[in-house]
Amino acid sequence: MNDDYKNYSPAPDLLRGRIILVTGASDGIGRALALAAAGLGGQVILHGRNVGKLEKVYDEIEDLGTAPRPSIAVLDLASAHNTAYESLAASLAEEFGRLDGLVHNAGMIGERFSIEQYDAVQWQKVLHVNLTAPFAMTQVLLPMLKQADDPSIIFTSSGVGRVGRAFWGAYSVSKFGTEALSQILADEHRQGPLRVNCINPGATRTSMRLEAYPAEDRSKLKGPDEVLAPYLFLLGPDSRGITGQSLDAQ
Ligand code: NAP
């Protein structure tokens, strides 16, 4: 596909009537996407682990005035077990009945060490938060996605999810796995309406980027609200039929 989606300009009511869960909605790209989706009429479910931060985003959405009232879903992806995922899915099913969009955005970068020096416990944690948790979340939410007419799942990748780079260790491996998970799921649903795609947001001015590159000139980076075009494109009806793709936001 061509990359027109990078300049996608959403219609004002693009997401009206769509129920969309964004993981990691408390900060960075997830927060910006939640605000933008709500501003386009989406009924947003704000997932995160920090209630105070989520409540601030909730208030910002309320302050938009025209957006549907959001919901908050608290789950620490590092420690949640099956029962927590199941009760999250059960409460969302009871409240909403279906899910039109699921954006796997939450993530952690972990330590930057060579493979020789990488701590095994840290390795497992990064793979768990970035890869196993989105798998678990997808699995429990699939029945709700199947209730929607035009459901869309978005995974978040990275440049190091496509080409390995020294010292990116578990983060890079988790993003390669994310690309695979996205492609497998897309292939398993070729026959139905569910589309599944991956986005690499590219270098974006967030806390995670600061952790990775503390010395860089941040004024040259795009802000989180400047990388959202492909997310909005994939969440709305204009991307019907597009599945199994890896998109770049920049
Ligand atoms: P960020 O500002 O650090 O935000 C990360 C989000 O994930 C926060 O909401 C954070 O919650 C949440 N999170 C982290 N660990 C969690 C856990 N254990 N349980 C629940 N939530 C958790 O990062 P970002 O830059 O926006 O990153 C968003 C996505 O883009 C990530 O998948 C990242 O890998 C990807 N990405 C970013 C860049 C970039 O340059 N920024 C480049 C390529 C890919 P708290 O607010 O509680 O910390």
Q: What is the topological layout?
A:
Layout: E1 19-22, H1 28-39, E2 43-48, H2 51-64, E3 71-74, H3 82-96, E4 101-104, H4 120-145, E5 152-156, H5 169-188, E6 195-200, H6 207-212, H7 229-235, E7 246-248
Helix pairs in contact: 1-2, 3-4, 4-5
Bound molecules: NADP nicotinamide-adenine-dinucleotide phosphate.
The site of NADP nicotinamide-adenine-dinucleotide phosphate (NAP) has 28 residues, from α1 and α6.
Features:
250 residues; alpha/beta; Rossmann fold; 7-stranded parallel sheet; 7 helices; 40% helix; globular; binds NADP nicotinamide-adenine-dinucleotide phosphate
CATH fold-level name: Rossmann fold
Apparent shape: globular
| Uncertain segments | none
Order of helices and strands: EHEHEHEHEHEHHE
Using only C-alpha atoms, the radius of gyration works out to 17 Å
Largest sheet: 7 strands, parallel
Widest beta sheet: strand line-up: 3-2-1-4-5-6-7
Small molecules (ligands, ions, cofactors) in the structure: NADP nicotinamide-adenine-dinucleotide phosphate
The termini sit apart by 15 Å
Q: What proportion of the residues form beta strands (DSSP E)?
A: 5-15%
CATH class: Alpha Beta
How many domains? The number is 1
CATH 2nd-level architecture: 3-Layer(aba) Sandwich
Portion in helices:
40-55%
Instruction: State mean pLDDT (0 to 100 scale).
Output: 97
Count the beta strands: 7
CATH superfamily membership, which one?
NAD(P)-binding Rossmann-like Domain
Q: Strand pairing plus helix content: what structural class?
A: alpha/beta
Total helical elements: 7
